[in-house]
């Protein structure tokens, strides 16, 4: 197995799971449908290429939350909104949620290393613009993450779980990074980073997320449930000292 590692850093990100009509929600970490959509955009895969979308969705995904975001909301005015009969057009106000100042390490695991290298190449020179949920929410730094210690490529030969446990902390805000450095190596209350990883649906300690994409075709989008395991990994001195910030 190999793992492609990505850095999702932006002033604002939005990862909708139940968005409908006047209220657009966001999850507290990247969804699988959102990440697959971003990878498809990098490769230039059209929305209606269901087989290629399903192939990308087979990659095992894991997320490490290196900085929890702050949930915010803004309001948008939409004009000429019709009623159910297509008449009486009106102006509506929609509420749209997003994450501010969030930072994620996202990994995609596969035994197809050729595909992972292809994805890395596409992320460095994407076919279509890349953004985190909305077109205005663009990355703050390159998406392919620097390699693990001793490696020089974001496609690592480590498993997804090992990569999430050992990859250098992505934090680059001086105040937060300095606070992490001051934490004693054997403190009784170390800093813990939340992880969300694709899991066996038959496992006991899982949650279901309805964000496994089957089709992005306009008006016919469809998704399947996805089992994830939520855990935490400690922020070790090695992850801080070896990090590239």
Question: If you had to describe this structure to a student in words, what would you say it looks like?
Answer:
The protein has helices at residues 32-43, 50-57, 113-124, 160-166, 174-182, 237-241; strands at residues 2-9, 12-13, 23-24, 60-67, 70-81, 90-100, 103-110, 155-156, 192-198, 207-215, 222-234. The protein is of the alpha+beta class and 245 residues long. It has one domain (2-19, 26-68, 103-241): 2-Layer Sandwich (Alpha-Beta Plaits). The chain has a seven-stranded antiparallel sheet, with helices on both faces. The longest helix is centred in the N-terminal third of the chain and has 12 residues, at 32-43. It is globular and about 60 Å long.
Outline:
The protein has helices spanning 32-43, 50-57, 113-124, 160-166, 174-182, 237-241, and strands at 2-9, 12-13, 23-24, 60-67, 70-81, 90-100, 103-110, 155-156, 192-198, 207-215, 222-234. It has 245 residues and is α+β, with helices and mostly antiparallel strands.
